[in-house]
Every structure is written in structure tokens, then in C-alpha cells.
Amino acid sequence: MRPRDIIQLVMVLTAILVMVYIATNPPHNAWKRAQKIRDIFGSVGSKKDQLMARESTAAILYKCGLPKKCPVNQFAFLIRSGAANVIGPKICFDGQVIMSSVKNNIGSGLNIALINVATGKVEKIGDFNMYSGDVKELLKFMKDIKPGTVVLVASYDEPATKMTDELRAMFVSLGSSMIKSVGFRDGWVFAGAVGIKQKTPFERHIKNDKAKNVYDGWPEMLEMGGCIPRRL
User: Fold this and answer.
1) Which of 57, 75, 91 is the last residue of a domain?
2) Mean pLDDT of the chain
3) Could you list the residue range(s) of the whole structural domain that residue 149 is in?
4) What is the CA radius of gyration of the chain?
5) Do 206 and 128 belong to one domain?
6) Which end of the chain offers a freer environment for a tag, N or C, measured as fewer CB atoms within 10 Å?
7) Closest by Cα among 180, 198, 201, 73 to 190
8) Stretch (H or E) spanning 125
9) pLDDT digits over 134-182, tens only?
10) Where does the pLDDT of residue 124 fall: very low under 50, low under 70, confident under 90, or very high at 90 and above?
């Protein structure tokens, strides 16, 4: 048999096989199989469809990143302590970041924001070095706080070396129940107010414990958020 005859025979056999496959696998069966595969693995869809799907399943966050919306008569807030001496703290109130590394208005020690609870406006902010700073500056800052003021505090690096009994008593008067235990390189976040009649529920404290520290020489970062009433 000549080579040309062999090629023609192969072509004929191939055509026959294709016809047999089509006859035994009609298009609607192939479509069903494709549909089944798509049902199992999901349809890719357009980029717009994918984006809409992600948006519909994404968690909805409210002011200051809270998972729930605060009532009309309350303010949302979030306080995050610093992480070791590397990542700075963050204080957010009513959806506005008041203090953070990005705003370049934080420092090692205690970072404090004073809020007029009636208007929700920031009255004053300050950062106080509690390791090598002048504690008199913090004492004056605290003594000047007016009634009707919410006090938000975030620690960073070292909050307690210069902490005096007088300062601790001032924080107690603002509703703190943990300040007496805050020590060297502890983490502490706090939200209190002038004239509060009971201990604030918004306070967290974590000890600097070598056996439990997340960072080398510091405990893990603290984060606390919630809703503060407009009337104390």
C-alpha cells in the first residue's frame, strides 16, 4: 500500500470515529455535563458579578469599624493600644480617627483624648511620656478636665513608670477599676468620664508577663469599642 493510500485510510477512520462520538454524545448531553460541572464548581461570571458577590457577603461595619450601629443617642468609639514600641495606638470617636500614627499625634506612654459628651466634639488631645517625661504636664492636663467630658486613653510602650498615686486616684475618679494594677510595659485602654457614678464598663488591662507576652518584652495589643451615651 502506497503512503498516500495509508493517509487517506487514516482520515476516513478518523471521520468515522468523530461521527460515532457525535451520535453517542449529542450536544444536549454535553451541555448537561457542562452545566453540572458549573453547578459543582460555580460560575466564573464577569468581574462586575464577582465584585457584587463579594460586596453582598462582606461584613458591614459601622462608625469606628464597629460591627453594630450605635443608637441615635450614643456615640461610637474604638480604642486600640500600641503594639510593643513599634505600632502606635489608635483612638476613634463618632467615626473620626482622633489619634493615630498616620495623624502623627501619638507618643510613647499615655495617649489621651478629651471629648465633650454633649456635642461629640474633641476638646483636647495629648500624649505623655510615662518613662522619661515630666509627670507634672499630665497632672495639669488631668486637673483641667471639665465636667461632661469623656476621657479616652490608649497606652503605648510604657505607661506606668511615672504614674503616681495622685494620678491613679484621678483615673479612679473617672471610673477606672484597673489603673491601680497597671505596671511597667502593661497594656491599658480606658474610656471614662468626669462625674461618673460607677465603674466604667469600658476598660481593659493586660500584664507584661514574660511567659505570656506576644512581643519580646510586651504583651499583646488591646482593642476595645462600644457606644457611649450622650448623657452621663
Assistant:
1) 57
2) 85
3) 63-229
4) 32
5) yes
6) N
7) 201
8) strand 122-128
9) 999 999 999 999 999 999 999 999 999 999 999 999 999 999 999 999 9
10) very high
